[in-house]
Amino acid sequence: MAPKSFWIGGPVVVVAAALTPPLQADPVGKDLFDAHCADCHGLSATGDGPKAASIDGGVPNLTTLATRNGGTFPTIDVMSYIDGYTRENSYANMPAFGEQLLDAPTVLYDAGDGIPTPTPEPLVQVAEYLISIQN
Ligand code: HEC
Predict the structure, then answer these.
(1) Which of 51, 59, 60, 111 has the smallest count of CB within 10 Å of its CB?
(2) Could you tell me the distance, in angstroms and rounded to a whole number, from the CA of residue 15 to the centre of ligand 1?
């Protein structure tokens, strides 16, 4: 059975990928989040992942980023945190994802400053996913 479903599934996946515009990528963003972030931040992104209890200071709720920033999602800050670009020493318990993102394809993305900037596509997808789950 396994080889049969491989041959049926393969072309379908390729066609779906070709038809999916890069920025309508919430499902991809959710997959990336579930794979790389949910251990700590939780599948619901509220900071209740399985590793959260063992992290000093706990893990922040990522569904309240906009609320905690006066109602505006701090896109540039969030992306910088995730890729480690502006990580400060106080920000010690979360791994930086910059290395994994270096080899990723880039897309032009306006993170809110009006300047479309080449940005690693997975970083955009994760940020767009976080924007979509704000409370
Ligand atoms: C090993 C656990 C861990 C993983 C994995 C992890 N984080 Fe975090 N994250 C944290 C902790 C802990 C903090 C709080 C700051 C600190 O102590 O590093 C944080 C902070 C953040 C913040 C800043 C929140 C705020 O309130 O300002 C964002 C945004 C964030 N993480 C997004 C992500 C994303 C997206 C991923 C996956 C790509 C991810 N994190 C993976 C533990 C983790």
Answers:
(1) 51
(2) 34
